[in-house]
Design a protein that fits this description.
Largest interface: A-B, 39 and 39 residues
Radius of gyration of chain A: 24 Å
Strand content of chain A: 15-25%
Mean pLDDT of chain A: 89
Order of helices and strands of chain A: HHHHEHEHEHEEHEHEHEHEHEHE
Structural class of chain A: alpha/beta
Oligomer: homodimer
Number of helices of chain A: 13
Strand order of the largest sheet of chain A: 7-6-8-9-10-11
Chain lengths: ~350, ~350
DNA sequence: AAGAAAATGATTTACGTACCTCAGAATTTT
DNA sequence: AAAATTCTGAGGTACGTAAATCATTTTCTT
């Protein structure tokens, strides 16, 4: 039988109330007694029965998700997954609130975060723009005791508890490994198109990509990164201009959104075939894969990311550490051949 | 507030005991009353609070994992993850028992399954060999009310509740997509090396691979699949012989285990470089990637698979359906550039 | 040493469900 | 109509923890 709080009380020679105080970090216990209790916990190998604990504290955890609005397919997909999680809320003792801000508008994100009352928020997940004001807003929440996780795009300098997203440097390295092998025979330039260098996920991908390209595939040189602002029209414009100005482009790595614009340019283009690696499976990128405009799409599963964010926030709200290995978000690589 | 059994009793106009009888399928309730209760359940949208239920019925679920023994790194890794899960057992109200059988020995697996007493087993996970006698043994357990899941390698014709593993056809297709693009410039043969065609995962990979190769990369023809019995020595022998007999081999797809033998042959070989795609990250395949002998390794995360198997078995033991989207096991693709 | 403050104990209620017993009501059978 | 049988109600205890109250002891202040 697993030991219970009663067993601890008995072996520590204290009352149940004291054990409870120690276990839940309540005040009013002398250090000497705390030690005795903690020693009993270790001796018996006590672990709190979470089912019973959750039952007893019939607390619900109000969580806030902050996402960009706008037409970005990936973000809409992410929003959909958050809404799915909302339907599961009653079972998970969460109350999820969804807030959206203008894409890439750091001040708007900061304002939204600053507007949150720590008293009625148990955790915050946000898609971050890597900017001083967002860092400050996040750190404010953390210092007020509200755990924060970043979703999809990280905020490295901040005090966020966890980043729920893929390893973007590794993703960029993967993209480079694929690109280099796909375009092994033809020397030339590879165009890199990002959304914004203020997004740490885009930064990470770009640097991982550049790193591997330089070291492993010297016959290919990098052009960019250009900033397409995750916007199809802007992407079409900048890519179109780059292709017009550089006849020796053999590949494109699109590490941000706005792939619709990219496909429009590519499919209208004549000339030798380009090797294209992009991110996120959406209707557009799926079609581009199927039609042979894209060679590979690197994808992250929004559903996993949202579920992971919730698990981590709940764990932190309970003062626990999440299981690291379980919270790793993996990369999916799709070719036209293995599209789901 | 979520409705509770009390609310149901009230709106159905029956007592708590009757609600309990209906909810838990106990006898002694008239059909008319059952209907009333079930209607109240639907009307209120009642869902059983599993934390409370689990607390009340302090049941532990004895699970059995059946794996092959032997030196196969992947299987040893899988075993390690099962042992990890055993350490978490107390939190998950499981009692995991690990049993091993000789690799590829279908009769031994069947014997092991037949030896299980349904009374003290709440669920079984096994790495299946696709054979009539294993199917029969699995179906026997299922008919006795013991849920069974297949792990890593499926048993398509059986009554297993779920397959905890990757989509192996998609994996084979992915391998083909990569191989075809890696070896785009040079026509020739691609050697396929499997462990055994009695393993449904190997079957799936081989067929997905062949499918895409034939359709998309007609300049490459398939040689094999050879059977290396997941054994390094056997792999070395068959691959060595094939390479000696065919000077026009440009790539190798190793879809089973025994990669150590493959690396030995490749690294000793002189001549033009081969494109190699293999499965499972192990010490050997990792080294082969780093040294450039392998181009890509397709990996499945044992930890996820084991955790998923446990979740599914527990859900089935409670008569629930697992959350399908959550139980999808993803494929990791590693190049030397993104090795973790 | 008296008083205040801090630490601890003892005890209770609650969470939502499972499961048990026993009595009594409703229904069917004889 | 009586007896037998089948349903149903009422009420309880239990699971392991959280959280509260209030009494008591210990420790610290002055």
């Amino acid at each position: 039988m697993r030991p219970t709080v009663h067993d601890i009380a008995a072996t520590a020679g204290v009352s149940l109330a004291t054990v409870d105080r120690v276990l839940n970090g309540r005040s009013g216990v002398r250090q000497k007694t705390i030690d005795r209790v903690e020693q009993a916990v270790r001796a018996l190998g006590y672990v709190r029965d979470m089912t019973a604990a959750n039952l007893a504290r019939r607390r619900v955890y109000p969580l806030v998700f902050v996402l960009p609005d706008g037409p970005n397919s990936f973000m809409r997909n992410l929003e959909h997954e958050v809404r799915q999680a909302m339907t599961r809320s009653p079972h998970e003792r969460t109350a999820i609130k969804l807030m959206t801000t203008r894409p890439l508008d750091a001040e708007a994100i900061a304002r939204t975060l600053d507007g949150l009352d720590p008293k009625d928020v148990a955790g915050v997940a946000l898609v971050a723009v890597d900017t001083a004001c967002v860092v400050a807003a996040v750190d404010r929440l953390v210092s007020l005791g509200v755990p924060v996780v970043t979703l999809v795009s990280d905020l490295p300098g901040s005090r966020r508890a966890h980043f729920c997203g893929i390893d973007n440097v590794a993703a960029g390295r993967t993209a480079a490994g694929l690109m280099g092998r796909f375009a092994r025979s033809t020397p030339g330039k590879v165009l890199v198109v990002a959304g914004s260098m203020r997004l740490s996920d885009h930064m990470g991908r770009a640097s991982g990509f550049a790193d591997v390209m330089a070291r492993e595939f010297p016959h290919l040189s990098i052009l960019g990164p250009l900033e397409g602002r995750d916007d199809a029209l802007a992407v079409r414009r900048v890519v179109g201009a780059a292709l017009a100005a550089n006849s020796d482009i053999v590949g494109i790595y699109s590490l941000g959104a706005g792939n619709r614009g990219l496909v429009e340019v590519i499919s209208a283009r004549t000339g030798p075939r380009l090797s294209v690696v992009a991110h996120e499976v959406t209707d557009y990128s799926r079609k581009a894969l199927a039609e042979g405009h894209f060679d590979a799409v690197i994808n992250q599963d929004c559903g996993h990311e949202v579920r992971s964010a919730i698990r981590v926030l709940l764990a932190r709200a309970d003062g626990l550490d999440p299981v690291k290995a379980q919270e790793r978000i993996r990369i999916d690589i799709f070719l036209r051949d293995n599209l789901p």
